[in-house]
Design goal:
Number of helices: 13
CATH class of the largest domain: Alpha Beta
CATH topology of the largest domain: Dna Ligase, domain 1
Distance between the termini: 55 Å
Shape: globular
CATH superfamily of the largest domain: DNA polymerase, Y-family, little finger domain
Order of helices and strands: EHEEHHEHEEHEHEHHHHHEHEEHE
Bound molecules: magnesium ion
Radius of gyration: 21 Å
Strand order of the largest sheet: 5-6-1-7-8
CATH architecture of the largest domain: 2-Layer Sandwich
Length: about 350
């Protein structure tokens, strides 16, 4: 049976909540996270700030260079979490199959039309309207037959977008899609693909499954299927998490420890923010280092108590990095993961205090 999947993604979530709650912030370039003394990292930039080129995970210093009048606001995670719960309650009116990806993003499987609305597109329209009317915020939604296409679609007409890629359009849509728009293709893989004269889904389709596997590893096999409109991953409401990992391949190999520490902090921030919608703490931190010659090293540290916020993960990951004895050896990729999870007791504050980059 053909599935109906919606991917909903709030527009500039943290920044939009701030602009909703404080009228004086509206229409102004604003950044949540980081701080006026130019330390820390941007968590979310308002659309006004994005016009200056400011993006998530950028250093505050860079943001202030791009737009000197940008306003830095401390995050209010308790508020974002409350809003996130309200958004999920809206989703639950329309489906029981909800898979949250973060505070502001979720997949919904609406194959079973719980309210008898008639079409997935109309369900998405109604969800967006409920969010706007009840919470004063805008969301963008992508509607299609699988997670992969729905997720790409939700990003196409942001903000306040609604993009429907029906079953008959999936093949053509995937064929015209530039490789850098493929979800999960990072900048490095995209460059590699272009170097092989692979610019669009249609180009990828010329390669056999074996060739995709040889050139891009396991993810190559996944892309082999998604360019053909095949993505059987189900929407999983109660996924039990074994580990959560983030990694980044650098455009140029890094040799200086300070550069690596900065990148590592960004990864810890990303990891902690992904954990924010899970009532979990992890006891094991693993650092992965891949070198310029593609050899790899991992370092692991386990603790007696579970951790979940950026500072806690950062403290341990930084130790692991400093003790790895890199000696300016060129590093191509850094990754950090948290595993060995336990459920958090109720009423524990899931969030760390305002995220700040502590410069060593
Ligand atoms: Mg979002």
């Amino acid at each position: 049976m053909q599935r109906k999947i919606i991917h909903v993604d709030m527009d500039a979530f943290y920044a939009s909540v701030e602009q909703r709650d404080f009228p004086e912030y509206r229409g102004r370039p604003l950044v949540v996270g980081g701080s006026p003394d130019k330390r820390g990292v941007v968590a979310t930039a308002s659309y006004e700030a994005r016009r200056f080129g400011i993006r998530s995970a950028m250093s505050s210093r860079r943001a202030a260079q791009l737009c000197p009048e940008v306003l830095f606001v401390l995050p209010r995670f308790d508020v974002y979490k409350r809003v996130s719960r309200a958004i999920r309650a809206i989703f639950a009116r329309y489906t029981d199959l909800i898979e949250p990806l973060s505070l502001d993003e979720a997949y919904l499987d609406v194959t079973v039309d719980k309210r008898g609305i008639g079409s997935a597109l109309d369900i998405a329209r109604q969800i967006k309207a409920d969010i706007k009317n009840e919470l004063g915020l805008t969301a963008s939604a992508g509607v299609s037959i699988n997670k992969f296409v729905a997720k790409i679609a939700s990003d196409l007409q942001k903000p306040d977008g609604l993009t429907f890629i029906g079953p008959s359009r999936v093949t053509a849509f995937m064929e015209q899609l530039p490789v850098e728009k493929f979800y999960g293709v990072g900048k490095v893989t995209a460059e590699k693909m272009k170097g092989m004269n692979l610019f669009t889904g249609a180009d990828l389709k010329n390669l056999s499954e074996q060739e995709m596997l040889e050139r891009f590893g396991k993810v190559g096999r996944f892309y082999y299927h998604v360019v053909r409109g095949i993505d059987d991953r189900t929407v999983q409401p109660h996924r039990t998490l074994k580990s959560m990992a983030v990694e980044d391949t650098f455009l140029k190999d890094l040799t200086h420890l300070e550069d690596l520490e900065l990148e590592l902090h960004k990864l810890c921030l990303k990891l902690a923010s992904r954990l924010q919608n899970q009532p979990l703490t992890g006891r094991t931190v693993t650092l992965k280092i891949k070198f310029g010659d593609f050899s790899q090293m991992t370092r692991t540290q386990s603790m007696k108590i579970g951790i979940c916020n950026t500072d806690q993960i950062w403290t341990i990951a930084l130790d692991l990095l400093r003790l790895a004895g890199l000696n300016e050896r060129p590093v191509r990729l850094l990754g950090v993961s948290l595993s060995n999870f336990s459920k958090m007791p109720n009423n524990t504050n899931l969030f760390s205090p305002p995220e700040q980059l502590r410069l060593f």
